[in-house]
Amino acid sequence: MSEPVLAPVRTCFRALACTFVPEAKDLDERAWAEAEAIVEKFFASRPETVRRQVVLLIRVLDLLPVFRWGRRFRSLDPERRLRFLAALQDAPLLLVRRGTWGLRTIAFMGYYARADASAAIGYRADRCGWEAR
């Protein structure tokens, strides 16, 4: 069994997730556990090198704002978090842009794949398609 990806970076991952999906700030501990379990299941099938790279990326994203605002990402107010991530989407390094968008996608997956979120947005997928409604 592989080591959990989010355990060493949980606080920053949650801060990133709340920035990508503002509704995530209202999650209780049960909902966070469900979202994180979805993300961990996704990472379980990924190579160890990818898992380590994701942890490293989250740690770097947490540390970079220190050079501009003197605070880690997880300690920034929501507006500064947004400005920081907006700057990364235009970063000259393709790897940084891809990594940030990848984390955004993972945060969306963790949030929206939860049963409560699916129900809240009216998602009722059925293998029979639209006719099943």
Labels describing this entry:
63% helix, mainly alpha, 133 residues, 7 helices
Uncertain regions spanning at least 5 consecutive residues: none
Strand content: under 5%
Order of helices and strands: HHHHHHH
Radius of gyration: 16 Å
Question: Number of DSSP strands?
Answer: 0
What is the helix content?
55-70%
> What's the number of domains?
1
Shape estimate: globular
| Mean residue pLDDT | 91
How many helices in DSSP terms? 7
What composes the largest sheet? none
Give a verbal description of the structure.
The chain is mainly α. The protein has one domain (7-132). Helix content is 63%, strand content 0%. It is built from seven helices and no strands. Helix 1 (10-20) crosses helix 6. The relative contact order is 0.16. The mean pLDDT is 91.
Structure in a nutshell:
By secondary structure, the protein is an all-alpha fold. The chain is built from seven helices and no strands. The model has no long low-confidence stretch (mean pLDDT 91).
